[in-house]
Amino acid sequence: MGGFFAVASKQDCVFDLFFGTDYHSHLGTRRGGMAVYGKDGFDRAIHNIENSPFRTKFEKEANEMKGYMGIGCISDYEPQPLLIRSHHGTYVISAVGKINNMEQLEKELFRSGHTHFMEMTTGEINATELVATLINQKESIVEGIQYAQDKIDGSLTLQLLTPKGIYLARDKMGRTPVALGKKDDAYCASFESFAYLNLGYEEYRNWVPERLW
Predict the structure, then answer these.
(1) pTM for this one?
(2) Angle, CA of 206, 209 and 211, to the nearest 5°
């Protein structure tokens, strides 16, 4: 599965991002990552958390990173969040979901030309990189997100950090949640609402999974 946490704040957001992401550790066991944006631009870190918990692996980054917007994720498979440079500018993306037609989409993108993917040690491509490539097919990030969700057979919930703000897109079929929290100087987004309630946020909006018949 996996989980994520995002913060947009008037103050430094790293403390909330660190603990909010850590609260999702039960959802993934392979990779953890955080990325922030501040006056010095983007800063990002990814670590293997198979043999050591997220909190231990990211203590150094929690003390060194600075930024007023950030996203973090716990992944059960691929390394993320990814730092992407495209015609949309530079952004950071992470995703939770299950893409059933990865091979078909990969072939379609290769046929369109001028596309490549980094291969993971498993011999597969990173699903989050595939999502970013689909987004980059369109003229705007919003159009790209809608296009990616239309093309993907399966489930896709994502967060995308840009210098101007954070985009959130919940799975179009409602299989996975996105919960929004707020406090005086910050807003956050979380895969599970208890993560931000423990950090002093109150519920702002909660898109919970809908029952599918």
Answers:
(1) 0.90
(2) 135
